Amino acid sequence: METASIDALIMEGEVIEALRACYDPEIPINIYDLGLIYEVSVAPAGAVAIKMTLTAPSCPAAQLLPQEVASRVRAVPGVTAARVDVVWDPPWDPSKMSDVAKLQLGML
Known about the structure:
Elements lengths: L2 H17 L17 E6 L4 E6 L11 H11 L6 E6 L12 H6 L4
Parallel strand pairs: 2-3
Antiparallel strand pairs: 1-2
C-alpha cells in the first residue's frame, strides 16, 4: 500500500472520530453511530467529502448540523477542505444505527 493511501486511511479514521463528537440535538447519540454519515472520502491532498443525511427533512438541525460537521472535519490535522452534502436517498431509518447506538437507546 502506498503512503498516500495509508495517510488517507489514517485521516479518514481521525475524521470519523471528529464526527463522533457531533450529536443530533434530539437524540443523545453521535451522528456517526446514529447512521447519519453515509460516506467519508479523503483525497490524497487532504480534501474531505462527506455525504450525510438527517433523521427527517424537517429536522430542526437541518441548517446547523452540516455546518458543524464541516467545521469539525476542517479542524482535523491535515484536512485542507471539507465539503458536506446532505442527501435524502436512501432515507434514514433506525436500522442504519450502529449496535452501540441501539444499545444506548435500549433497542438491543
